[in-house]
Amino acid sequence: MIAENIKKHFQKQSDYSKQIIGIAWFRVALVVVAIGFPLVGLFNNAFLPNFNDPMLPRVILSIMCLILFAGTYLHPIFIRYFYRFLTIILFFVFIGSAILCFTNNTSIIGVSLYIVSMAIVTMSLRQSVSVLVFNTIAFIISLLLLLNSNLQRVDTIFILIIILLMLFVSYTISRIRNIADKKLIESERKYRLLAENITDVIWIFNVKTMRFNYISPSIELLTGFTPAETTGKFSEKSKSEQQSSAQTIL
After folding, report:
1. What pLDDT score was predicted for residue 214?
2. pTM score, two decimals?
3. What is d(CA 114, CA 209) in angstroms, rounded to the nearest whole number?
C-alpha cells in the first residue's frame, strides 16, 4: 500500500513536471503579449487619428496576462488549469477585437486586428471540439461585422475567404495535433504496460545527474525494494559511490 502511494506520488510529480515544460514558452508569450497590448494601443492612437482604440481594455488584458504569468510561479493551480485560464483571456481578446472593429465601422485596420486575434485564439486552443465551437462563433461574428461594414464588396468577399481559410487550417491543425497526441498516449501506455509487467529489470539512468529517471517495478522481485526505495537509496550514496555503482550497472 505504501509502495503504491509512493508510485502515485511520483506519477503526479512527473505529470506536474510535464505540465510545467508544456507551458514554458507560453510564459514568454504572456510577457510579450502583456507588453504588446498597451504598445499597440498607443501606436494606434498616435499614428491613426481616425481610429478609436481605448486604452483601458488593453491595460486590463495586460494585467490579466501578468497575473497568469506570475501565478504559474506562485501556485500549482495556475499550472494545472493554465490552458483554461489562457482560453478565458484569449476569448476576452477576441471579443474586444470584435467590438473594436465594430466601433470603428469595420475599417481595414479593425478587420486586421480582428483577424490577428482570431488566429491567436484558434492556434492556442488544444481540443478540436473547442476549435470547432470557437470557429463557428467566430464565423457568425465575422459575417455580422462584414455585413455591417462600409467596405467594398470585393474587399468583403476577399476578407471572408481569408477568414474561412484560416478557420479551416486551424481546425485541420487541431485534428492533426489530437491524432498525434492520441498516438503518443497509446504508445506510452503500451510501453508502460510492458515495462511494469516484464520480469526483467528496465531502467533509465542519467549519467549527468547520476540518478535513475526510471526503474521498472520488477526491481522489487530482484532486490526486495520498490523503484522509489531503490532510487532513494541510490541518491543517498556519495558521488564516488554513485559513480562506482553506475559503472557496475552499466
Report:
1. 77
2. 0.60
3. 48
